[in-house]
Structures are given as structure tokens and as C-alpha cells.
Amino acid sequence: MNVLVINCGSSSLKYQLLDMSTEEVLAKGLAERIGIEGSVLVHEAPGQEKVKFEQPMKTHKEALNILMAALVDPSHGVIKSLNEISAVGHRTVHGGEAFSASVVVNDAVIKSLEECSELAPLHNPANLIGIRACQELLPTVPMVAVFDTAFHQTLPGEAYMYPLPYEMYTKYKIRKYGFHGTSHKFVSAEAAGLMGKKIENLKLISCHLGNGASLCAIKNGKSIETSMGLTPLAGLEMGTRCGDIDPAIVPFLVSKGYTVQEVDTMMNKQSGVLGVSGISSDFRDVEGAANGGNKRAQLALDIFHYRVRITIGAYVAAMDGVDGIIFTAGLGENSSTSRQAICDHLKFLGIKLDPVANSNRGKAMIISAEDSKTTVMVIPTNEELMIARDTLSLVK
């Protein structure tokens, strides 16, 4: 059974086609600059050279037409007919309170997604465009929506409610939703396998560390706390996002002449390691500058490591203990120095890293020493595979 995974952004479209009998990736690709001059789609399949399509893509539907043609092309395609696509799984950012799990898409689901769009105005409309375009091109193929927020719908009230007037919740659904749920769900299941234990008996902390970053406390297989909130702006310092700050900073800056939109742009796109370092939003560039003696770059990293550590400490308290800590995503999987900097200040958990194991990059493995009281792991995330698995389970 072949499942096509679609991830639509406002001007981009990522995809993977997976054979779910083996969970093998048959093809993958990325279309960029949709609706903008210079549109391009890069398609690749294992054992073949990448194929680049540089042609106008005014809409996501046009990009989908190009990728569908690439999948069945005699020279670089991987299937003979689009009939070999059994289902399509769509990454959907925000499901609000309506969805606590992935769902097969119907008219009612689409209506609910439209209603959630005000909670994720940059993401949900693009996700809906992808769903509707696929419905037009593959009208008999079931569509499944897989939500970044769904995994966190198990948060207890004391974790997801903000101490605002209660009517802010009843009127506008202002609460913590959390994101990266698909990633946290995937790596926690993999961690249980790596530890040789049942996830129902484990207390895990998943650290999804990249340009966007969040932590998740997973107790007995369920998310009970996470660092992102109503939006993906909350929590840790990130590539360009500030994370948690004193909310009074917003009206203070407005009183200094900034517009609300300018402050929003500042917090989302000009802050984080970029804002502090003044160099880049890419942690690799910032690490390189810090190694060269740049003090602002080092400060940006110190803030990031510090916030990860204190969040881990809070989550240990939330779960009354921890069995394993997971590092995943771009920085978490590849930066041994960041993992070391974070774990060096977690000795109260009995953590001791194996220097040789920690030097590995992007490979699923335990990196803590045998006598470490808490297991520390690196597990590459695979959100596309998680989406495909959820899709398969719903349509099989």
C-alpha cells in the first residue's frame, strides 16, 4: 500500500511517497516559490539523480500536477499509475480542541479546519489548499489530516489553561495547544524500543531542537506538558523566535512607537539566536562564530542551552521523575556540543554521557554511559513516516 505524504506551506510543498509494506521511501521532493517568480520543484528517488522542474507554479494544484507527473514518468517515476496511491496523509498544523487524533477528511473536518485557521493563520490555510488540491486530482483516494497539535490534547487542565479571565478560553479558545506533536510521538515510541521497555511504563522528555524548538514531557505514552503554547512562538529561544518573555514587553514597545504588527514580526522573525548573536538563525553558523570567540554568538547559545535545561528540570517535576531524555531534530540530532552543554548541568539526574557515543551524528542510539542513572538518546525524527503510519491505520 503506497501512501503519499503532503506538507503544504504558504509557498512550498514537501512530499514523500512511501511503500507501507516496508516503510520504504519511494520518492520525495520539494516545490518552492509557489505563486512567486522562480518556482522550482526538485524530485528525487533512491538510486536516481535528482530531477529539477523550473517552471511557473501559480498554485499548489499546479505544483501537485508536476509532482504527480514526476511520480509516473517513465524515466524517473516510481509508480506506473496514480491508481497505485492508496491514500494521502496531510500534515496539518492546528487542530484546536476539535481533534485529539488524526482523522479521515470529510466536509465536517474541512469546516473545523477552517474554523481553526485563526489560530494558525500562516499554516492552516496552506494545509487546506493542499487537501483541496489533492481531492481534485485524486477524487477517489482517501485523505487523512494528521495534526501537530493532536498529541498534546492529553495535557491536563492545569497544564493547558492560561491564568487569564476564564471567558478568554470560552470565547476565543485561548489555551496551550503545543506543536511538533507528530515528532514527539514518533521519537518517544522509538525511544521505548531502544530502551527495551513499554512506553506505558516510561517517563520521557523529548527535546525537538532545531530552528523551531520545543520540549515535551511524555508520561506513560501521553503528552502531559509541552513548551509551545497557543502558537509556536512560546517556550524556548529558537532560530528567529524569542520564546517566553515578559508579556508586558509588548505594550511597552508599542508605547515606544512600534506597531503591534512590528512587535509580532520582531518576536517571530528577528529574535532568538539571530537577534542575540546578530549573525544567523542557523545554529551551525552561530556555533562556528562562538568557537571563533564571538561573545554574542556564545551568549545566544548559552541562553538556548540554559532554557532547555530549566525546562527539562520543570518537566522532571511535572512527571515526578524521568527515565529517558531524547534529543531530536536538526540541532538535537547533530550537535554533540549542544547535547553536552545541556547535559553537563543535569548531574542531579545522574546523567553521564559516553563521549564516543555522543560524538555520533544523526544516528538512533543511546549516548549515555552504562552507569548513567537516566538514559539519554539521540533519535532522528521522521514526521513523514509518522503521518504515513497514522494514515495507513485509518484507511486500511
Automatic annotation (TrEMBL):
It holds the Pfam family Acetate_kinase. NCBIfam families: ackA (TIGR00016). Homodimer. One of its GO terms (molecular function) is magnesium ion binding. Substrate binds at R91. The active site is at D148 (proton donor/acceptor). One of its GO terms (biological process) is acetyl-CoA biosynthetic process. ATP binds at K14, H208, L209, G210, N211, G212, D282, F283, R284, G330, L331, G332, E333, N334. Mg(2+) binds at N7, E383. The gene is ackA. Pathway: Metabolic intermediate biosynthesis; acetyl-CoA biosynthesis; acetyl-CoA from acetate: step 1/2. Gene3D superfamilies: 3.30.420.40. It catalyses: acetate + ATP = acetyl phosphate + ADP. Mg(2+). Can also accept Mn(2+). This is Acetate kinase. It is found in: Cytoplasm. The keyword Cytoplasm applies. Its cofactor is Mg(2+); Mn(2+). Catalyzes the formation of acetyl phosphate from acetate and ATP. Can also catalyze the reverse reaction. Its main location: cytoplasm. InterPro entries: Ac/propionate_kinase (IPR004372), Aliphatic_acid_kin_short-chain (IPR000890), Aliphatic_acid_kinase_CS (IPR023865), ATPase_NBD (IPR043129). The record marks H180, R241 as: Transition state stabilizer. Signal peptide: none annotated. Belongs to the acetokinase family. Its EC number is 2.7.2.1.
